[in-house]
Amino acid sequence: MKVRLRPMRWWDIEPVMELELRLFPEDAWSRGMYWSELAEAHPGGTRHYTVATTEDGTIVGYAGLMAVGTEGDVQTIAVDQRHQGGGLGTVLLTDLIEESARRGCAELLLEVRVDNLRAQQLYERHGFQPVGVRRGYYQPANVDALVMRLDHPPYDPKDHHHG
Fold this sequence. Notes:
Blueprint: E1 4-7, H1 13-23, H2 31-39, E2 47-53, E3 59-68, E4 71-79, H3 88-102, E5 107-113, H4 117-125, E6 129-138, E7 143-151
Parallel strand pairs: 4-5
Antiparallel strand pairs: 1-2, 2-3, 3-4, 5-7, 6-7
């Protein structure tokens, strides 16, 4: 199935919220959180948000990055259940990793639920290492977060080519 990535826009918030509530019933973001994140997703802003769409335009995944100075943070990454296991998580995560490198981040951090082994395995395959635990990070479920980090080699634009 062909999926393409494009920047998330304000009119994507409703379909994204449908997925958000289905995928993260215990700790879903609010519409307001997406609005404020997207307000910073402009050239020169600190956010980068992407949606993955099928050929008919249906949103089947999304991901967001915060980049401040040399530190990047994976804000969210989500894949529709019906498309999990097909490599879409990898596509979205790769987009965030490449964008954080372009923005000059020396490291990329993320939080993942300690009980979400599938996501942890995805991050490990991309070189993320566990660096700590945040107790009770996910509320109201009171689930701990594993903090993982990817160290970027210094970004050199001439090394970067699409091949």
